[in-house]
Write a structure and sequence with these properties.
- By secondary structure, the chain is an all-alpha fold.
- It has a single domain, classed as Up-down Bundle (Four Helix Bundle (Hemerythrin (Met), subunit A)).
- Helices cover 80% and strands 0% of the residues.
Length: 145
């Protein structure tokens, strides 16, 4: 498989995870536990697929250097650093939320999910933003300012 497709696949998986999280939130606010659970499990599966593709791509391709300068560079690295730190932090939180939800320990699940949800949504959204800034924004000499 051509490695060049992986960044777009990764961004799509991140966006899908974010959408599933928002749908899961929508359903739980309407007390539809079955659809909430389905969305949250699908978000977990999508995130695991993302991580697998991300690791495969970077193992075979290495890093891609950000081409922006000035304020764009500050914005990019601010987003990247917060995204990376929170992506690591949320892993045990997501696992714990999932386990508590599946065991129907609702009060404990609710308590950790209130912290996990916004962080996970942030990581999903910033993953797409990083993709756009790294692969879709034109920072070359031929760009129109």
């Amino acid at each position: 498989m051509d490695l060049a497709v992986f960044p777009a696949i990764n961004a799509t998986l991140n966006a899908s995870s974010g959408l599933l999280l928002l749908l899961g939130y929508y359903f739980i606010r309407r007390k539809n536990i079955q659809l909430h659970s389905a969305c949250m499990i699908a978000a977990c599966v999508t995130s695991v697929l993302f991580l697998s593709c991300y690791l495969y791509y970077h193992f075979h391709h290495g890093s891609t250097r950000f081409q922006g300068e000035g304020v764009w560079r500050v914005v990019y690295f601010s987003i990247l650093i917060s995204h990376t730190i929170l992506a690591v932090v949320i892993v045990p939180m997501v696992i714990r939320s999932l386990v508590l939800g599946l065991k129907r320990q609702d009060e404990n699940h609710r308590r950790i999910a209130r912290k996990t949800f916004p962080l996970w949504v942030y990581v999903s959204i910033t993953g797409v933003v990083i993709y756009v800034m790294l692969y879709r924004m034109n920072f070359g000499a031929d760009r129109i300012v």
